Amino acid sequence: MSQKIREVMTERLVTTAAQVSVAEAARRMRDEDIGNVLVVDEGHVKGVVTDRDLVVRVLAEGKEPEQTTVADVCSEDVVTVSPDDDIEKAVELMRSHALRRLPVTEKDQPVGIVSLGDLAIDRDSRSALADISSAAPNS
Questions:
Q1: What phi and psi values does residue 27 have, to the nearest 5 degrees?
Q2: In this predicted model, what pLDDT tens digit does every residue of 83-128 receive, in sequence order?
Q3: Is the pLDDT reported for residue 137 higher than 60?
């Protein structure tokens, strides 16, 4: 029997509303020691904003972080998986869409997130990515 997403996903989610400033989203990422925040509207995932989005779409473009909203810079074409999907589906989606993280949804509601690190730890705990992903933060 193949392994399911729910066995490797992280259930602790950090979400934000679309109209929150990217400066506030960045502070949440720092405080929670994470690299992405799910953009949620009425309980549904509407987008994802990553630390890379903040650098490429805000800082590099000279936008003002306190005046730029998460809605202005988040990725809106969200690819998700279900907790009951096989891990192989997450691997294929990450590969085909060049993603590092996938929101996990159940009945269109966010319930977790699965990352490359989660998969590396589960599939090859001796890999460099697994070591890095399971190490304590260096902040």
A1: -65, -40
A2: 999 999 999 999 999 998 999 999 889 999 998 888 875 555 444 4
A3: no
pLDDT reading at 25 higher than 80: yes
Pair of tokens at residue 90: 């997450």
- Residue 39 DSSP label: E
Query: What six digits make up the tokens of 78?
Result: 């969200």
**If DSSP codes are grouped into helix, strand and coil, which group holds residue 57?**
helix
pLDDT of 130 strictly over 70: no
Which DSSP string corresponds to 70-115?
Answer: HHHHSB-S---B-TTSBHHHHHHHHHHHT-SEEEEEETTEEEEEEE
Give the residues across from 26 on adjacent strands: none
Read out DSSP for 22-35? HHHHHHHHHHHT-S
Q: Measured between alpha carbons, how far is 36 from 30 in angstroms, rounded to an integer? A: 10
The pairs formed by 26-32 with CB atoms below 8 angstroms and a separation of 24 or more are 26/51, 26/54, 26/65, 30/139
Tokens of 54: 């903040």
The pLDDT of residue 131 is above 70:
no
